[in-house]
Amino acid sequence: MTHFTIASFNVKNLIGADQEYYRYQSYTPEEYAWKEAWLADQILTMDADIVGFQEIFDEPTLRAVIDEADAMGNAANDANIPDASKRYHRKAIFRKLAYTPYFGAGGKGALAVAPNVADGQPGQRRPGVAILSRFGFAEPPEVLQDLPEPLDIPFSRLRGTTEGEDGAGFFRINRLSRPILKARIPVGGKIITVFNCHLKSKLGEHITPRGASQAPAEDLTNYDPTARALGSLRAALRRMAEAWVLRREIIEELGDGNPVMVLGDFNDSEHSVSSEIISGEVPFKNYAWMLRHDAKHRSDRYSDDENAKIQEDIDRVRLHSAERLFVRKSARDMVYTSAFGGVFESIDQIYMSRHFHPDNPAKIGEMEYFSVLNDHLTDGSHPEAPYNKLASDHGQIMAHMVMGDGED
Which of 135, 193, 233, 385 lies 20 to 30 Å from 80 when distance is taken between CA atoms? Predict the structure, then answer.
């Protein structure tokens, strides 16, 4: 059996000291030292085999954090793990305590970083994503952000309108707000396709008029509720469009028969439209009860054979939430990775194809446990929250997986 762990970690604006990432925002050397140590300690605590990072501004800074985690882990091994001269050194507890470094002596890991193609000058920086793997990569990871062709999402005309009317319109997307990183990772004799994403946030997308220095809706001293609402609408449309682009990539991998795991900052809850676009439809209980799409009379319903085919067609491309699988088998009824304005919710997700679903007779593995590190979170509306910029404003999530070794 092969046991491995896979985690998602939004590090919150990882960049070196004295570098302005957003306007007037930077870390002093002391603040950066504290942040680097905190992040390294979280990585050490997780000790995950695969980690998807979000909000990475440059690769050297991330590597410095990982190197510090390795140094801390090696020091912990020296202190906690008995050497071969101790007759009890083979006890299972010490295997659990041991930390495996990603790099350096004993480390065989690999790091892939996808910078943001919209990254700009100081004060106008844009973050990317990264994947860290103790197993390396089966092939060079792929990055998707600028679309090969613009994606036009047409809206259908409403009932009662005349054929040929132009009022329905469409939404166009040329570029994702942040890159999607796809890596094929060898685990236990299999190749797993891992996607790491960071979808558009709920922060309103407001339009700056030509020649103006800022969007009128950003001026809170002249609060415009309808313009603010329109900014939220734009953000939601973009997030859902990005979710569909990711879904298209997932379907291609599943169509090739590849096990898939998707993780990252979805910036929305599990039951949001954007998350459901990524995971796919939940099949109806029995399509033989449902009126056919081409029904000619009220009793014209799908057959039992058609029901079975529809169920399989939907289920084979559906993804399953690690958090939901965990809640199903545990006594815990709430997991959260974000806190703001009194709302505690999970906006960081790990999804997996049915290759890992416990009810699938043909599964290659399954999740044994699910961890969330969220004790550091403070409600963003609290007065002390601005001082928490050095830690992350996200909880870290990790799925503990087990796979059978060998080929199918």
Answer: 135
